[in-house]
């Protein structure tokens, strides 16, 4: 059992047998009245996001989530195929399950796949990845204003904002959680 007072981002719980994950939370202690936990949570199976205020003493059953590191193999245009590195079994997944992570993952890279009752519900890319810039406008010499960015297309097809000194062929590090440029890679 888990209480609403213990909610943190990523915590999984069940309401009426349905699994949810905490997306955002805020412990609120008003001057008048009882404290509560304002929570934004996502239905693991449907992806729907809800908001609700819970009493910090409310108790919930913990949702059992299994995670497995798998290798991304390829896409045939409709399905994305992943391989279990221990059993070598292949797992085909639809685009809606992989759309957030796949834009930062190259073939043969490892990802984390989360399962609820044996069904995959989300694919997570590594937090930081190094990818090559395949298309971007050249920086203008003399344009030295701070924080000037331009769009760059990466080898996976993702488009991110990068500083003007980044050129085609550069390998850059990306934070996959926010989609932001971090640095040039060595």
What does this molecule look like?
The strands form four sheets. This protein has a five-stranded antiparallel sheet with strand order 9-8-7-10-11. It has a five-stranded antiparallel sheet with strand order 14-13-12-15-16, with no helix packed on it. About 5% of the residues lie in helices and about 55% in strands. The protein is mainly β.
Secondary structure layout plus pairing:
Layout: E1 2-3, E2 12-15, E3 18-28, E4 36-43, E5 49-54, E6 59-60, E7 65-75, E8 79-84, E9 90-94, H1 95-102, E10 110-116, E11 119-124, E12 128-136, E13 149-154, E14 159-163, E15 171-175, E16 180-184
Antiparallel strand pairs: 1-6, 2-3, 3-4, 4-5, 7-8, 7-10, 8-9, 10-11, 12-13, 12-15, 13-14, 15-16
Brief overview:
4% of the residues lie in helices and 53% in strands. The chain has 186 residues and is mainly beta.
Task: Using the alpha-carbon principal axes, give the shape.
Answer: flat
Q: How does the major sheet shape up?
A: 5 strands, antiparallel
The residue fraction in helices comes out at under 10%
Cα end-to-end separation: 46 Å
Give the integer mean of the pLDDT values. Answer: 88
Helix segment count? 1
- Strand coverage percent: over 45%
Spell out the helices and strands N to C.
EEEEEEEEEHEEEEEEE
From the helix content, strand content and strand pairing, which structural class follows?
A: mainly beta
Low-confidence stretches: none
Task: Let me know the number of strands.
Answer: 16
Rg is 21 Å
Q: Order of strands across the biggest sheet?
A: 9-8-7-10-11
């Amino acid at each position: 059992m888990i209480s609403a007072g213990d909610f943190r981002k990523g915590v999984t719980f069940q309401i009426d047998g349905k699994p949810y994950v905490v997306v955002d939370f805020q412990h609120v202690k008003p001057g008048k009245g009882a404290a509560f936990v304002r929570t934004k949570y996502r239905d693991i199976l449907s992806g729907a996001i809800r908001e609700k205020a819970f009493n910090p003493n409310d108790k919930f059953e913990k949702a059992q989530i299994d995670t497995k590191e798998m290798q991304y193999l390829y896409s045939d245009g409709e399905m994305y195929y992943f391989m279990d590195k221990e059993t070598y079994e292949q797992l085909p997944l639809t685009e809606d399950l992989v759309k957030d992570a796949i834009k930062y993952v190259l073939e043969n890279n490892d990802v984390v796949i989360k399962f609820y009752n044996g069904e995959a519900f989300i694919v997570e890319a590594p937090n930081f990845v190094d990818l090559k810039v395949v298309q971007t406008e050249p920086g203008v010499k003399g344009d030295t204003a701070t924080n000037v960015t331009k769009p760059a297309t990466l080898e996976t097809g993702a488009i991110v904002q990068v500083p003007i000194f980044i050129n085609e062929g550069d390998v850059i590090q990306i934070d996959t959680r926010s989609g932001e440029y971090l640095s040039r890679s060595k």
